[in-house]
Amino acid sequence: MGHYSAKSGKAMLWVSESATVKQAREFLERMAAEIRRGRGPYNNFQEFDIGGKVIYSVDGQGQQHYFYTSGKRNVWLAVDPAEAQNALHKLLMRIK
């Protein structure tokens, strides 16, 4: 987990790695299902595709949150809304 801060805002990046790609996908799908049901401090659940990758997005705690799988990794980015799209784009260039 990493916390980042700049004049333009704050962000938190969390990355975990599962034993297999299948386990990573199952973990992400369970998490998405719980959030979709309204569990937790999030709202405005969205799912979209960027270059064949499913990205989930929610609002909450004053930030925009994106989460997705990358191979065996699960990635969660929480970032101030003004920097959200730029931060997601940069992240996807590094953790595809």
In a nutshell, what does this entry contain?
The chain is an alpha+beta fold and 96 residues long.
Main traits of this protein?
96 residues, alpha+beta, 6-stranded antiparallel β-sheet, 2 helices, 28% helix
Number of helices: 2
In sequence order, what are the helices and strands, one letter per element? EEHEEEEH
The portion of residues forming beta strands comes to over 45%
- The chain-level mean pLDDT equals 93
Largest sheet report: 6 strands, antiparallel
Shape: globular
How would you characterize this protein structure?
With 96 residues, this protein is of the alpha+beta class. It has helices at residues 21-36, 84-94; strands spanning 2-6, 9-17, 43-50, 53-60, 63-70, 73-79. It has a six-stranded antiparallel sheet, with helices on both faces. It is globular, with a radius of gyration of 13 Å.
Q: How is the topology of this model organized?
A:
Layout lengths: L1 E5 L2 E9 L3 H16 L6 E8 L2 E8 L2 E8 L2 E7 L4 H11 L2
Antiparallel strand pairs: 1-2, 2-6, 3-4, 4-5, 5-6
